[in-house]
Specification:
- This protein is mainly beta.
- It has one domain.
- The protein is about 5% helix and about 55% strand.
- The strands form 2 sheets. Strands 1, 3, 4, 6, 7, 9, 11, 13 and 15 form a 9-stranded parallel beta sheet that branches. Strands 2-5-8-10-12-14 form a 6-stranded parallel beta sheet, with no helix packed on it.
- The longest helix has 5 residues.
- The radius of gyration is 14 Å and the shape is globular.
Amino acid sequence: MAQQQQNMGTLFNALTAGSKITGTIEADSDIRVDGTIEGDVKCTGKVVIGEQGLVHGNIQCQNAEIMGRLNGTAVISQTLALRATGAIQGDIQTGILIVEPNAIFNGTCSMGNKEQEEA
């Protein structure tokens, strides 16, 4: 009988500062970006863009914390936290949005989930 591994936050992928990836990234565990990604990021866990991180593309994940820059669309099923050092240029769709003072957001935002919208 096959066992399904559950993401407990102990496993994560990382792209260090000075590194660059071009293309689509798909991850079954959390991912931290301190380098540059030119492409889309699809993750079943959490995406963290560090202060030096830059994503030119779209992200789709469960939770996200942006301390660096995102130029693209973000579809976050649960919580998006935009920290004071973070900047988003693009549209976002999320369940919960947290924006710290001095954060930059230029785009449109759609909040809530389908169950809330249907009620």
